[in-house]
Amino acid sequence: MVATPPLTSTIATSHKEPHLRELGINVNHWYAVARADEVTADKPRGVTLWQQKIVLFRDRNHQVQALEDRCPHRQVQLSHGEVVNGEVECVYHGWRFDATGACTHVPYLGEAQKLPTCTLRRYPVREQDGFIWVFPGDEARLAAEKIEPLALPEWDHLNYIATVSLIDVESHYSFLIENLMDMYHGRLHDDLQAWADPVLNTIEESDHRVDVHYHAQSYYRIDKIWSVSQLFFPALRKLHPEDLYVSYVYPNWVSTLGQDFKICCLFCPISPTHTRAYLIHFTSLQAFHRLHKLPVAFRRFVKNRLFGAAQKMLDGLVVQDVLMLEQEQRSFLADPSLKGPELNRALGTVQRLIRNQATADN
Questions:
Q1: pLDDT, tens digit, for every residue of 82-97?
Q2: What is the Cα–Cα distance from 231 to 302, expressed in whole angstroms?
Q3: Helices and strands in the chain: count of H runs, count of E runs
Q4: 244: which strand partners?
Q5: Domains of the chain by start residue, with CATH
Q6: Do 26 and 267 meet the contact criterion of CB atoms below 8 Å apart?
């Protein structure tokens, strides 16, 4: 049996306090590592969560399983193999492993030989709200504290249309969450952003979240069929006052703008210089009361048909932000001592939460 080193909360090995941009993650949370439709019945999928390679696959009951992505025979990645009868099979020599991580089959096993007793680490995994969530921390603590993934009730709700954009950025995750919590960089996004003129109102913090309230001007109000056209034609937009809330619910992010707009970001930090995340935009149809009276089958058809309706807008935001975040990361690597003055009070609170979570007793 080969022992797998546990995930650590930081990458530092000395007693010196690590830099914010070098902090690890708090492993005692659920992390969205893939979309549910990315894990199929016949092919394993490899993901990385804070320097730990994990293989996802579906068993005979179509339930998602998660193991360390390593064949203990020759240490190659199981995710390069196949799924056979609900078990993951290594592409190299055909060794097969079940959902518990135990070896169940070696194609050339001799009559006098026994199956190897090596066992792979198994991760708690859950399929929820369209995503695959992995818990890389203490399983005893998971059970005792009943830790849950971030709920996305809008994902299956018939009155919300979802759009998902993948963020894949060569930067530390702290740069991304600061970007999402900072509403003062709207000029970067030109006509892609749904609000303008934000003014910070209040900041509330606890040991696991930061909630920030901004006053803003918005054109985003979906109360008529033609209202959706505002997303695509700037000339049709009319600004009105609206409350803008952004929350860092560690390790993820949630924002609402009035009653019609909700956007979430599910974080999957890969390494100190690489972050993946899923940005999810929900368009509300709550104001269309006649639509609610139609047959459920038709409403589900409309919901599925309109999935990704805001793709161009969301992808555009991601491209613009990634460019800035990667410049910030390169600047940090070139000279970690450089630090400009920060005027947005919310970001200091966010940084404090990052440090407290990353250095918590995992």
A1: 999 999 999 999 999 9
A2: 18
A3: 6, 17
A4: 214, 257
A5: 32-139 (2.102.10.10), 153-358 (3.90.380.10)
A6: no
